[in-house]
């Protein structure tokens, strides 16, 4: 989707820089350092900016990469090219280990957890005998190709920047794919992503490993650039510094990492070399000024500098419409999706002493629109959450096509062909409508992260996007397809959620207040769409407050009040039911 | 190991743990109210300690000047924010709290520093100076960012930490300092010797824990702070000035930090950069307490202190490794016990 032309231009510029006449060698050293920092920051962009997982521990992974090659190439005389995969492997597998224990941490535990093991590992580096304790390891052999040894900063420059540009391309490819959409949905909480089959802990672990491998690569290059390693650059300070490189550059953008690295490295260098001239004789003035500038920068551009720069570029016209002639094969349907689809029996949910859902039983038949109504706080949304596995029932049972699915996780429920929308819209606001809807088809695609990075997923990807485009067309939002989901009105966002749910190719659609925020004409169009879906063989269970909408649409209505079912029947019988009238209007005095 | 060594280690651990508990409490307080993970907490410790030690040695601490400089900055921020609707009362009030107050304190400091003041005066001056620094820092660095994400606040907090640490070197030099004991004298009970200093540490920690508990439980300001912690917008709608809550939180944190510093500096030599590690251990305790619970944080801090004491006896090389790795199992347990559904909002 994104044009690769700017990247090519950037690569050519970077290749030309060392050949510029009069280029001071010192600048090349700076560029080497920028490249090394950019690699780590890029991983953090994916991890923190996109995935929402803040890590202070990246410096430790740089250390793993650097120490692996240092030990193997000095003590065992291995060629640096052989140690490259080993360095990446060590960082990657330690990421699996540390990731398994930390990515499960929620909220602010995660950054602090990474800070903790980051510090612990730093002290470990400086205490272990075979890593040379505080002195580290020196006399690491340089990278070499044949007889050409990359001894000078100018010769390893190419290795570093090839690594940066290739990593950036792979990372961008990853983000623009099925896996990438799952990663980008992580930051917005996992409820919505899991409802469409995304295994969020696995997605988190994946970005964690990706970031660690990039850090390991940076460490490997660092070891062969410096030709010596010691624990200092892998401590907590460095870990924090990588994080603010990412934040200053723009934590949500791959190139923000590169820009941030350039700004921070150059700024530090300038401060270190020029400040003493202005303010002679004082110790750490550069740290003071650096700290102050960092705060000032954040106050001026809290989102980082890259998005701020990008906002000056002319807005690009929306992307291409996917080729909707490509068909995604239908979900394998269980034999005989007829009769009772969903059976809820005496479902009960207690939150402490509050009984939110009190032994509620009802069913949904094939080709039927059932409405769940009741005053606010009647337990309707909780019932939805019980059915879709977001909450687990205290007692009672829920079966789909006669099979009990009690307390199955959301990812399993959606596999059965039950998809849903949310009362409070859960879209990823900084992704386009098309990308949001494509998350719905997550389980119908097959490409993994590696194929996505190498761009081998295009056939699969085209089908997914085609399906998403088809569903968007079906709900009537074709014109908004390439807009950011966050820019739509709330009513339109609800419709986007319906399109996303339809992408699952469901047999049962659960809609939580789909008509809220819609205008009259839009409601009629929605009702027509739902009838069309029913006639096409789908069942719909919806929660709705708009009585006119419900009465005209539903085949059957279930009424809840204070968590208890008080009535069930056709719209006509419900309208005259005295219990229902009492619940809605109170008793006449 | 015999009982004497064990008792001695436990005692040592409890003394350190009490300090970590205080710092942990301050971190929890600031995070809950402002969402700032207060990395500069360690600088409040060293500033308090070294200001106290400098004053006691009859030297002029640079922190007093810093307070005035930050105050002028805070005044400028106040004026800039209110530039569209400036009125006399606001300007005068801001001028008094941000400029007149630190100027008076600076004058007092210059006056007293020349004549080796008594311990009580040193303590009072150090506390006031660091408290003002904390207050103005919030105004300058964090209040303009109050609406941003935890991550941005965290990075800003790192920036402040770097700047303060650099300033610390400028003010106090690379040499370590020690201060006079707050309370001299000692007594023995069995094999253990209790110094006046360690008794002070225990007493002040307990007083603070009880005080904070009373403050949050019984006073209107305390309740306002808790309301801000739970829901910023809701608190504002209820008429609570959330900036005021932030200021109170930072004020308390800086006082607690400075007080901890003053209590440690007679026991161990502190350097301009010692605060970071001390603050981090307070952190460990705060995280174990889940950044929400005060009693749990206090207990966790004692555990951290004791573990540190024992590991420095048995495996002093790996002391820090052990203390920080202690967190991992605790974090695991906590997050498995309560898999909270979090939705990060920008």
TrEMBL record, chain A:
Residues 342-587 form the ABC transporter domain. The chain crosses the membrane at residues 25-47, 59-78, 84-102, 109-126, 156-175, 205-223, 243-267, 288-309. PROSITE patterns: ABC_TRANSPORTER_2. SMART domains: AAA (SM00382). Keywords: ATP-binding, Cell membrane, Hydrolase, Membrane, Nucleotide-binding, Transmembrane, Transmembrane helix, Transport. One of its GO terms (cellular component) is plasma membrane. GO terms for molecular function: ATP binding; ATP hydrolysis activity; branched-chain amino acid transmembrane transporter activity. InterPro entries: AAA+_ATPase (IPR003593), ABC_AA/LPS_Transport (IPR051120), ABC_transp_permease (IPR001851), ABC_transporter-like_ATP-bd (IPR003439), BCA_ABC_TP_C (IPR032823), LivM-like (IPR043428), P-loop_NTPase (IPR027417). It is found in: Cell membrane. It is a multi-pass membrane protein. Pfam families: ABC_tran, BCA_ABC_TP_C, BPD_transp_2. PANTHER family: ABC TRANSPORTER ATP-BINDING PROTEIN, CONSERVED COMPONENT OF ABC TRANSPORTER FOR NATURAL AMINO ACIDS-RELATED. Involved in beta-(1-->2)glucan export. Transmembrane domains (TMD) form a pore in the inner membrane and the ATP-binding domain (NBD) is responsible for energy generation. This is Metal-dependent hydrolase.
């Amino acid at each position: 989707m994104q044009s690769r032309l700017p990247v090519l231009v950037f690569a050519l510029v970077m290749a030309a820089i060392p050949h510029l006449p009069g280029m001071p060698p010192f600048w090349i050293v700076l560029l080497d350092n920028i490249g090394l920092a950019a690699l780590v920051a890029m991983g953090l962009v994916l991890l923190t900016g996109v995935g929402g997982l803040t890590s202070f521990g990246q410096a430790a992974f740089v250390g793993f990469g650097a120490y692996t090659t240092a030990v193997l190439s000095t003590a065992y005389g291995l060629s640096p090219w052989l140690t490259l995969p080993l360095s990446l492997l060590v960082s990657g597998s330690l990421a699996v280990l540390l990731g398994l224990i930390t990515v499960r941490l929620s909220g602010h535990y995660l950054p602090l957890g990474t800070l903790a093991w980051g510090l612990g590992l730093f002290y470990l580096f400086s205490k272990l005998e075979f890593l040379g304790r505080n002195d580290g390891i020196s006399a690491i052999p340089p990278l070499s190709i044949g007889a050409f040894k990359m001894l000078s900063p100018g010769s390893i420059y190419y290795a570093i920047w090839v690594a940066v540009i290739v990593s950036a391309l792979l990372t961008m490819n990853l983000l623009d794919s099925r896996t990438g959409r799952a990663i980008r949905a992580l930051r917005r909480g996992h409820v919505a992503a899991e409802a469409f089959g995304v295994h969020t802990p696995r997605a988190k672990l994946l970005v964690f490993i990706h970031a660690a491998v990039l850090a390991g690569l940076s460490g490997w290059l660092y070891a062969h650039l410096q030709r010596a390693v010691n624990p200092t650059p892998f401590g907590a300070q460095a870990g924090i510094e990588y994080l603010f490189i990412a934040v200053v550059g723009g934590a949500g953008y791959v190139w923000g990492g590169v820009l941030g690295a350039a700004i921070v490295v150059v700024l530090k260098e300038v401060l270190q070399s020029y400040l003493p001239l202005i303010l002679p004789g004082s110790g750490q003035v550069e740290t003071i000024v650096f700290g102050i500038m960092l705060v000032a920068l954040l106050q001026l551009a809290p989102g980082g500098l890259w998005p701020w720069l990008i906002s000056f570029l002319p807005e690009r016209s929306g992307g291409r419409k996917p080729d909707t002639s490509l068909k995604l094969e239908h979900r394998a349907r269980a034999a005989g999706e007829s009769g009772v689809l969903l059976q809820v029996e005496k479902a009960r949910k207690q939150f402490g002493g509050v009984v939110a859902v009190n032994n509620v039983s009802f069913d949904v038949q094939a080709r039927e629109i059932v409405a769940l109504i009741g005053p606010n706080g009647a337990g309707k949304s909780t019932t939805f959450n019980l059915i879709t596995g977001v909450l687990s029932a205290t007692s009672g049972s829920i079966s789909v096509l006669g099979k009990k699915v009690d307390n199955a996780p959301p990812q399993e429920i959606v596999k059965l062909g039950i998809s849903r929308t949310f009362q409070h819209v859960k879209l990823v606001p900084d992704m386009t409508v098309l990308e949001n809807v494509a998350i719905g088809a997550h389980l119908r695609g097959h490409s993994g992260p590696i194929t996505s990075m190498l761009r081998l997923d295009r056939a699969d990807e085209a089908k997914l996007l085609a399906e998403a485009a088809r569903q968007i067309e079906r709900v009537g939002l074709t014109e908004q397809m390439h807009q950011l989901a966050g820019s739509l009105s709330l009513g339109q966002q609800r419709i986007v959620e319906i399109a996303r749910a339809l992408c699952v190719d469901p047999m049962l659609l659960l809609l939580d207040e789909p008509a809220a925020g819609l205008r009259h004409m839009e409601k009629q169009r929605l009702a027509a769409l739902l009838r069309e879906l029913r006639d096409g063989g789908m069942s719909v269970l919806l929660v709705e407050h708009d009585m006119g909408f419900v009465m005209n649409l539903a085949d059957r209505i279930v009424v809840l009040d204070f968590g208890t079912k008080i009535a069930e029947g056709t719209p006509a019988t419900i309208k005259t039911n005295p219990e229902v009238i009492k619940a809605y209007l109170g008793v006449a005095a | 190991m015999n009982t004497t060594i064990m008792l001695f280690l436990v005692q040592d651990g409890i003394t350190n743990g009490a300090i970590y508990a205080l710092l942990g409490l301050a971190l929890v307080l600031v995070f809950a109210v402002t969402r700032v993970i207060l990395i500069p907490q360690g600088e409040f410790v060293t500033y308090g300690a070294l200001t106290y030690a400098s004053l006691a040695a009859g030297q002029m601490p640079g922190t007093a000047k810093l307070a005035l400089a930050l105050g002028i900055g805070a005044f400028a921020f106040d004026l800039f924010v209110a530039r569209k609707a400036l009125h006399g009362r606001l300007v005068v009030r801001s001028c008094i709290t941000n400029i007149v107050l630190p100027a008076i304190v600076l004058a007092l400091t210059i006056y007293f520093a020349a004549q080796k003041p008594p311990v009580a005066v040193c303590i009072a001056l150090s506390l006031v100076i660091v408290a003002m620094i904390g207050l103005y820092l919030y105004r300058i660095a964090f209040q303009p960012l109050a609406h941003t994400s935890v991550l941005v606040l965290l990075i800003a907090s790192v920036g402040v930490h770097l700047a303060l640490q650099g300033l610390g070197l400028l003010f106090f030099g690379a040499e370590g300092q020690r201060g006079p004991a707050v309370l001299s004298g000692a007594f023995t009970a069995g094999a253990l010797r209790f110094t006046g200093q360690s008794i002070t540490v225990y007493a002040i920690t307990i007083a603070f824990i009880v005080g904070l508990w009373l403050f949050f439980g019984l006073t209107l300001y305390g309740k306002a702070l808790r309301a801000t912690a739970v829901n910023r917008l809701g608190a504002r709608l209820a008429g609570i000035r959330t900036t005021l809550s932030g200021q109170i939180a930072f004020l308390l944190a800086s006082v607690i930090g400075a007080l901890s510093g003053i209590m440690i500096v007679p026991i161990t030599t502190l350097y301009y950069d010692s605060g970071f590690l001390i603050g981090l251990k307070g952190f460990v305790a705060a995280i174990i307490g889940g950044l929400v619970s005060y009693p749990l944080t206090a207990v966790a801090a004692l555990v951290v202190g004791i573990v540190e004491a024992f590991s420095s006896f048995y495996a002093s090389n790996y002391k820090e490794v052990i203390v920080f790795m202690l967190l991992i199992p605790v974090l695991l347990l906590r997050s498995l016990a309560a898999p909270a559904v979090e939705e990060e909002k920008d």
